[in-house]
Structure prediction request, 263 residues.
Amino acid sequence: MHYHQLEANIYDKVYAGLKADIPFWQNFAREKCGEQGEALELACGTLRVMLPVAEAGVRVTGIDESPYMLELAQKKIDAADENVRARISIQQGDMRSFELSRRFDLIYIPFNTFGILTTSADQLAALASIKKHLAPDGVFALQVFFPDVTRMHGEVLKRWQAEMDETFADGSRVMRDSVRGVDTRKQILSVTWRNKEYQDQILVREFITDLDLSYFFPRELEHLLARAGFEIVHFWGNYERQDFWKMNEPWIQIVVARPISDL
Prediction:
């Protein structure tokens, strides 16, 4: 799955308020890469996370499958400070099969994006590509949501629910509602959004967006990473790096892993 043009065009507006994870990735990338190392973000999109990481002083490369997201990303790079531009690069690619000529101190996938891989085969393919591109002391980090089993059944899944209705400084307005479904056997959350775009209060566009997203339970992540040849270094339940297993109510899963040594 990758974002098409209509979806890409509203992405930054839909997620304009999503900033809580950015300091975490900035700090973590600085710790792992310093000034001399390099990070790789998979499914970098419009650089919501990646540009702030580069602004924090980290050299970072981004890969995304969507040419429309990358077009918007390039505009942000062109508008950035010269020093930031020197630290950042992007290219089109698939996280399951990318081929780059160098290795990285950190490879990361923020904001649930690993879940767009909806089969075990695709997940393992991505992990194999990641493992191949890690530097000798490099680590892989991903963030996914912690599944709430109480929300996986019932009438709430059958109702359309309002998600946003926001007007922006350029006179545009985005309205969005969604309906969700859950396949508990395949562990896939399916979301359909109805999107409406207005300009100066005139409806200019409406369209449907669909997304299938895998969800992962903690022990499952442990087994998946072990099967792919990784060992877990950290398992955190929030952006403050609290131990997931010691928290009463963790709401996200941040896993940091490294390849298991062949020695």
Remarks:
- The chain has a mean pLDDT of 95.
